[in-house]
Amino acid sequence: MAMQVLRTGLTGINSLTISLGFLTVIGILGLTADTATTGYLHAMVELMILAYSLNLFTGLSGYANFGHVVFYGLGAYTVSVVAVSLASMGFALPTFMYIIFAGIFAATFALVIGYPVLRLRGDYFAIATLGINEAVRVTICNTPWLGEGRGIYILGLVPTYDIKALYIQLLVIAFAVVITSYLVLKTKLGYGLRAIKDDEDVAEMMGVNTAKYKRIAYALGAFFAGLAGGVVTLQFACSFPEYFFIGRSVDMFVSIVLGGTGTVLGPMIGATLYWMVKDHLLISFPYFHLIIFGTILIILVLFFPGGIIGLLNRFLKKKGRVLE
Amino acid sequence: MSQENIMTINNVTKMFGGIRALNKVNVEVKKGEILGLIGPNGSGKTTLFNVISGFYPATEGTIEFKGENITNLSPHKIARKGIGRTFQIVRPFGDMTVIDNVLVSGLFSGKMGVKQCRDILKTTRLIEREGDLAEMLNLAEKRRLEIARALALSPEILLLDETMAGLTHTEVDESLKMISGIRNEFGLTIILVEHVMRAIMAVSERILVLSEGTKIAEGSPKEVSENEQVLTAYLGRRV
Amino acid sequence: MSLELLAQTIINGLFIGFLFGLAGMGLTIIFGVMKIINFATGAMIMLGAYVGYWTYTYWPYSAIPGIIVSVGVGFLFGILVYQVLVRRLIGKPLLTTLLVLFGLTSILENSMLNLWSPNPRSIPIDFPTYSYGLISISTSRVFVSIMAIVATILVLAVFKYTTFGRIIRAVIQDKIAATLMGVDVNRVYTLGFSLGVTLTFLAGALLAMVYPFEPFGGLPYALMAFVVVVLGTLGNPVGCLFAGLIIGTVHSFVGSYWTLNMSPAVAYLIMIITFLLRPQGLMGKKE
After folding, report:
1. C127 domain residue, yes or no
2. Mutation site for A-interface testing, chosen from C269, C275, C278 by largest number of A Cβ within 10 Å
């Protein structure tokens, strides 16, 4: 019942098919290309996953989770801590197991922290999430068994793998997060979250258990961000405090706003475009790229709040169809 | 009509800081009736609705719904038990389509799917606009949408908060017809706050008058309109 | 624990507390007037510091010109940012506001990086330090505290005694009523926002005399200012000053008895607990 997929309104162009098709193309490209290209696409898919994970909660519920990067960082540290502990007992697991641990830990952390934090609204919520991320980062930087500022290295503690093998695992996560986003948007959970975004008090009085649904979405987003964090630790064989860098949250936000918040296709378009533009700008204007991003973000948010999907829909709507 | 009580409000008091917004209010709501709630601005009508729907916790007193104590339950639980409401200042989910607005309460009460929600849109004459964003509707349509949304909870009691304010003469007449129609079609009990006196006198079977948070009169429209205390409260002097 | 260390800790805490309070006051005035949290506070604090520093490199005899220039530039900058950006944010969804100010932060930080390089800077004014037994008091900190107190008193006086201040208070209390009374809300918003930014710049310029700073160094200060605002209740300037002193003292205690690095974590912990126990802030009235 809860998983019943609902269809109302205009005939949606099947965004799920487009997203999965696009992801398949990127996947094949990455697996057949040279290592440098794979690395480039790997980073792009990682940003996609992060954008989707942010979209699951923030895009749908409207809660500004600037500290979302904390789940990515915690996922990264989970892998290294688990790897180090297991290695000290003399054994290791298949790599995907570490990644799953990372997701589970991040989601658990979200469930616990969500209890108090999700009672806050608006500005207070945004401030608290920034604070939590900073508190976790600073705590790690001052805890000897977490490597303080140096990070935790896991080289030789986990089974070896090549970048293509890791890329496949990343793709699996990407497929999962796209499908999850579609299901969330089209089922009861998505309806509840969209109602919360529009007017949380009214949503509650219309029967939506707002506390519960916010918590589910928050933990779901954290789970996928944690998975992405798990992959990054395996990629660099180390977890650093830099993984908690707030700029990473900015990347995610720009991606979903550029593509279209709260949609299935938006984060994918947004992350892809943003990644290509960012890379280009970094090379062409190494000293001005943040000025350019900042300006792009402001213009987008003020003048094109629906992002690319919103723009496309202005034209498609006249033909009685919409992108989701 | 049966005289069985569907809801009993016992001695409900609501304090905001030092201000007594509701003062020991007692109401017995009979199953199937249309109960009008009137009173000057700030007399506590909307506050009473907010306490019934659980949005504000009651400072004192209890509310029983079908023999069960629902005082201070979370709003979503009260809604699911069968108490739907509308808002004085319309609050539709503006970024969602008309059908999706209704579907939210249908889904979360667990009682209605897409098809039943469409039926409700037909009753409330909104079916032609089902695919439009709610914010694009005009005021009369938004008010009907709020009623539709509350109906999708498949409620037993409907709390209507000034659903006729700001409507034209013709729209008020249509609205009145719809309210009686809804009551008969869905077998509802309706509590209605209204400033349009003509409307409330026409549609209510019983009227309750609040003034400064206290119940000052209760009775048939005729009794109430002849009550001296009520006239004083409204006109500020003895007539 | 030694009594001297305790005394020293409290004194240092109060010094930094005035700065936190000042930055918090900048935030809280803007919030009070237009219900917007200035998420670009961190970058603005740093910008204030750089303006003070820049003035100092041209006239390295006294700290006063740097403060005056920083205050002046802050005021004009506030008007500019309001007219170009913030004006468009009134009544927009929260996410819009937050993202625009996030964008502004990126622009400011990158600009500072280009103008002044990523190397930490400081204003090398030679202030004497006096010692009483084991307690040492640097005159730079005393100077900074006095400036912060003077600024606070000035702001409160403006609020209480000038027409502008009365109008601002009216807008804070009831915007619609104020509009009906003929208040030009747009002008009040412009001035209110600039006043907030001015205080933020001032906090930066004063900070520059005590601590080194760098283009991306604003975030920890901004977070401290957020904590202060939360403790002191959004929209309450006096509450902010007290909250600043509390947080400054906590900061200093964590530094003396544990490690200064952990001070932000402790501050955020206090913030989160405050959120939970008293969502209306420590100084706020209960509903």
Report:
1. no
2. C275
